[in-house]
């Protein structure tokens, strides 16, 4: 061995001389990017924001608003999971129902949204902690006229423009949040009709963490939707990043080395499969064209 062969540059040169080149992981990212909390690892790619109030594009990762990867793909084109063929794209609205900014619920909903993007979804995030929606009122619910508040109208329009939804809630007294309930009460009775819905929740401890999702199943049914069989409930130990109660930086992420990540993968699979089955390729393309 040459005295200088112990240097990293010499090792790389030997690999290239053998024709192998530098090894790359299958997803095209380095180990630091895949290891939560690793030194120098970039933060999680945030979802492209929904066209809703109080989103300033800082969380954008794709499309026009986020300025990340260029123009939005045409409806009916795209890729599913890595290694898959061309699939019909669909639109998913992910709703984070926590009143706290940078919450565990938001991180969980965003994580599922990113997994859906890998399966051909154009995904938007509606964080209710930032939207400032008005309280619901029965007079608006029964009125044939559009809601008088612009923020409420845009939220309703975002739901109607979606092909699928992810509803996320914190668990308060074994139930879902009042903020999410108030937002859902702004919607017309058929708002979820023909749509598959994924349900996720977060609780500080395991007691009663799944009950909120079971309650939301009744709400989804009342609005004409269909909740997929699987649901995901998390606790604080499932996350990497800020300690509990620190909602300032929004860097909390789901630990991809933990068991919940695999369950989120399965949840994303179910939502993608059932959305395509319920809507059909033609219906998805028609909806995308109408929303353009």
TrEMBL record:
Segments forming domain NADPH-dependent FMN reductase-like: 92-233
One function term, GO molecular function aspect: oxidoreductase activity
UniProt KW keywords: Flavoprotein, FMN, Oxidoreductase
Coiled coil: none
Naturally occurring in which organism (per UniProt): Streptosporangium nondiastaticum
Domain of life according to the entry: Bacteria
PANTHER family tied to this protein: FMN REDUCTASE (NADPH) (PTHR43408:SF2)
Region (Disordered): 1-87
Biased composition (Low complexity): 33-50
Protein name: NADPH-dependent FMN reductase-like domain-containing protein
Ranges of biased composition (kind: Basic and acidic residues): 53-67
Keyword Flavoprotein: yes
Pfam family name, one: FMN_red
Signal peptide interval: none
Compositionally biased residues, Basic residues: 9-23
